[in-house]
Structure formats: C-alpha cells, structure tokens
Amino acid sequence: MNLFRLDASILPGTSVSAELADLVESEWAAVHPDAPVVRRHLGTDPLPADAWAYAHTGNLTPEPDRTPAQRDTLALAGSLAAELEAAEAVVLAVPLYNFGVSQHFKTWVDPGRLGPRPGACAGAPKAMDDQLIDELVCRAQAEGLQLTGDGGGCCSS
Predict the structure, then answer these.
(1) E strands, the chain, where?
(2) pTM value?
C-alpha cells in the first residue's frame, strides 16, 4: 500500500490545506507504518505553465511531427498520470484562492489526464476521466469516509 500526497499551496509555511493533509497522512501512516509516501509539491516545485498546451497539441500531432517540447511534455504528462495511478491512497492538499483552485493545481491535472498511460488498451482513450474520480470516491467510501457534495457513483467491480 502506498500514498500519493499532492500539495499545491503557494504559502507552504502557513497552509491550512497542508495542515489538514498532515493530519490525514499521520493517521494513514499510523495504520500503514511501512508504506511509502510519494510527495509532489506544486507550490515549491511548480510544473511549466505551458505544459497543458504542449500535452494537448502533442496528443493531436502525429508522433513523427511532434516538437521536442511536445515530446518532453507528453513524457512529463505520462509520469504524472503514472504517479497517480500507482497510488493506492491519495491526499490532495489543494487550497482555494478566490473561490477556485490554483493555477499550479490546474497545471498538474490537465497534462496528467492527457498523458500516455502504460498498459492502456489499444483504442482506449488516453485521458483519465470520470472513471478516476469514481475510483477515488469508491476507495474513500470503502474506507468509511463520509463524502459531501455530488460525487461519482461507486464502481461495481
């Protein structure tokens, strides 16, 4: 079992979302003391702001015609997707700024859902979509977590 933790605060020393994530991670680590925790901090180590554009245009461009920037960004996008897909538990410490998530978080989400996915079936969509959200909701519900708001339905498998 492993945990993926994503922090996105631009003020890591005073982040309430990070404090909440610390509590969740601490409780999780108490139950899974030997399990690895993979961390990514978008506030202190942001992704390139143009990552989404290069990943999107790279997906629309035939492989031989892709620019080096498109190839590099699609490789990054693939690693972001793999990082999340490899996790058995996920903590997203994402603050709201002006009633929305930060550009750092959006920059992480968009390329990751556009990246190539190892093991994907031929002809299957490359983008992570509502299935990922449904899977996260299912896992949370299976652990007994109460979710608020409209969530995805629990998977049958």
Answers:
(1) 3-7, 37-41, 89-93, 96-97, 100-101
(2) 0.70
Q: Give me the numbers of helices (H) and strands (E) for the chain, helices first please.
A: 5, 5
DSSP state of 44: T
Closest CA to 46 of 96, 94, 4, 105: 105
Residue with tokens 């990751």: 112
Burial (CB count within 10 angstroms: exposed 0-12, middle 13-18, buried 19+), residue 68: exposed
At CB < 8 A and 24+ separation, what contacts does 138-145 make? 139/88, 139/89
pLDDT tens digits, 101-141: 888 888 888 776 665 554 444 444 444 445 556 666 676 67
Average pLDDT for residues 136-151, to the nearest whole number? 63
Token code pair at residue 56? 């999107």
The more confident residue out of 148 and 73 is: 73
Q: Is 146 exposed, middle or buried, given 0-12, 13-18 or 19+ CB atoms closer than 10 A?
A: exposed
